[in-house]
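S.,

Sequence below, as promised.
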Amino acid sequence: MSGITDFDSLRRAMAENSERPEGPARNARAEQLLVEAEGLGIPLAVIEALGHQLKVYNYSSEKDKMFVPFARLLRMWDERPGDFDEYEVHSLHWVFKWMSSGMLDQPHVPLASIEKWLGEMEHRYRLAGHSERAVRSAEFSVAAHIGDIARAERAYAAWLAADRDSMADCPACELHGQGWWQAERGRDAEALLLWRPVLEGEFTCAHEPHTVLASSLVPLLRLGSTDEARANHLRGFRLVRSMESMRGAYADHVEFCALTGNEARGLELLAERPAYFTDTGQPRSRLDFLSVVTLLMERLDEAGLGDREVPGPAGRRWTARELATHARAEALALAARFDERNGNAYVGERARARMAQRPLVERLPLGVRATRPVSTPPVAPSAAVAADAPDLPALLAEARRLSHTLQPKAMDAWAAVSRAAEGVELDAHDRAEIADHEAMDRGPEGAALFERAAQLYAEAGDPGEALAARTRAAYVRALSGQLDEALAAVTEPYDQVLALYADDATGVRQTASVLMGRARVLMRRVQEAGEPAEETVLAEAESAVRELLALVGGYTGGDVRIAAREAEAQAMLADLAVRGGDLETAVELFGRATAGFVGAGLPWFAVEYEARLAGLAHHLGDISGAERALRAALEHGGAHLEAVGRAQLHLQLAEVLGGRGLSVEAAEHALEAAHWADEAGEGPTLGAWARQQLGGFLLRQERWAEAAEVLESALPDLSAETHGDGAVVQTMWWLGDCLSELGEHREAAERRLQAAEIAEEWPEQHDHATLAHLAAESLGAAGLPAEADRAYARAGGLWRSLGNVHGLVRSLRARAWLALRAADGTGAARELMAGAVRECETALGSAGADEEARQRLVAELGHTHRQFGDLLARSATEDADDDSIRAALEDALSEVTEAIAVFTSLGDDALHSRTGAELAAGWLEADLARPSRAATHARTVLAAYDDADPKDETARNRRAEAEQMLQVVEEQRAD
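The prediction came back faster than expected:
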């Protein structure tokens, strides 16, 4: 059975249906309710059911169904206007506007019919006495759609000039339309100025700021305001995600992704709304959607990803290239239908222009989880291109230049030499250099090649370089775990190179190379020894490093390779100082190392040590030093930093800045960290950390929607095993806070309860109690009083076990207010609030010598008495008899009087709390018909603020309320 037995049950059912999510199910229910209304035999019931049906059709993908119920409503109005009440008369004229825009959306409706309808709307509005503002707005929409710019400008001006009345769209919707037109005409700055009140929350409605946020994306990108565009995307997409009727705004978000290098996120958006490809109820928004699908897919095809599988219309699998072709054809076919109806090519031209857009930002990090599409490998150069490549001597010269100056691209240059040298006769020294650099490129696998290079250097008559190559081979073996073999292997080259150097048979560079290799092997032994290392191991390593410094220290020549040896040696000494526990010395030595690399023109080599320096400075409490080192590392690394290293540095800097309370800049670095972690393929690990931090920094700035989007994106990758359960709980906690601020209370409760379940296993239970309490708040705000009461009871038990009286008292007070809302819940509410008073008094009775803690308990008691009074006053329902009401008010006054006394004992620290209670007592006295006593309370408040600061808003408000009370009691006396 439907349960629709009378008009009231019909209205309740329509109200319930209005709260359901947009979509066919809600529409079907509206259709069923119309049938039920027709069975009641009440004309107004049918009128309201038709209006309800119109509304749900308008806010759905089935907008084309609006015309039939509206035609029926209009006929009923013309035949029997007396059947309409005032609200339904207003609603009937209001939806004229929906019909106008709805006809524009349907290409099968002739333009002549739309113009005729516009005239009908104007006629009926005039008869009803309405301003022409809504009519001119509708005319503007028609002219703008068909591309009649002159008429659109005239209608736009007339729209703004006409008076606002009850038929005008709300300010938020009007500002959206006005800003949209400015952006269409290329006046982006003017558009943003018009939209600002909506973006800042001054004006809102059911679809705003949703559409303004979406419409603002491309204008902001064109103006270069990328940070605001990113924020508006994260805020706006969250709003439109669940609203089926907002396909056009959804398309704007897909377009934003395609124009900012976020193709992967664009694909995720398409996957969330498969029905948008095929829903035909509103052809104009389908045209918008298919146009940006084409844009996105053609971007992917250009990037070499045309064969990638992508979300598309149901029933088959799609590649990006196939979907691009399909979407373009469908969009242009739709545009052609509009153009045929309109008699020009305007809609088709706009659709083609939208599909042809080029990226406005190469890559705009969003902070949310998305895997970047990987393009296909570049095609190898053809023989013709290879023929134009530099010859081998030129390649050799360039490779030597780069390696002699320790440039980051040196290894690539030697790889090019190696390829060009295949089949070419070279002298031994050239072959030695090629083998040497190939060995460097192979890392731990390069030992044999280093030995081969050593043979070739010896063959070429360069014994010093041969010994250096042998030492490099030894170090590679140390890196691969063959430490004993490495130590043995460096002994002979070390002895021989010192002898050669003494005889001037080799140079400083070759000698330094061998000494550095030996020092590296010995430092490796220190690292392998663990903590603490043997004194002899540390001493041998330090001796080797100092011997190297004795050779190269103070070098003033032009060979940067020798200067780099000195800088690296300083870093080795710093590492040894760390192992010896002398952190201050380590900081100084790492500083020398980084300065040495930068002074030699090798800033990219300083990055590793600047990162180490930052960690030490942070550990020593030198936050400014840590910040300086991290900024220097990012600056010096520049384009040479690998993605994962860049991510780590940005994340470290974000944490340091966040610790200093600089959440805005911290968020910027966390955003960069998330981006570079994704680029490095570390999205689920390092990227999740960065997103978690970014969400926290956005939350600190009260950017709730952006923070929620980022935190929700981080959660799937965060795990107790990888990131620790503390990070998981913190993320859910923050997310619950965001959702609560956004009014998504049921979802907030879910996150808080999930976090509480994890925290329940922790030894320290304060977080568990806090989360249970917060979950209870969310459950209460979500309209789930029974669940909220259970959660508050759980929190109260935890607070009691922790000895936290304040938490316990607040949970009891909250339960009391919940109980008052229930039928016959007054008695339970009184008992719970009385229990809260008793808990405060008991705690005060056993309070120790801590005066600050005692004062806090006294304040808690005062607030509890005050809330008890408010609760008792609220319990005096209007339908109760006079004696019951009077008794409740007397009891309330007694509790508020207690609150005044308690707050008075706290002196000036509780001034505002005391005056608030005085005013509450005054109003109760007035309700009890005791004006003199009420006036006394009012004058007490005025006297309390005689010397108040004029800027004190609370004082101003209290004085204003006291003045109002005096006026009321004077009127009581007069009566």
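The longest helix spans residues 851-874.

Coffee later?
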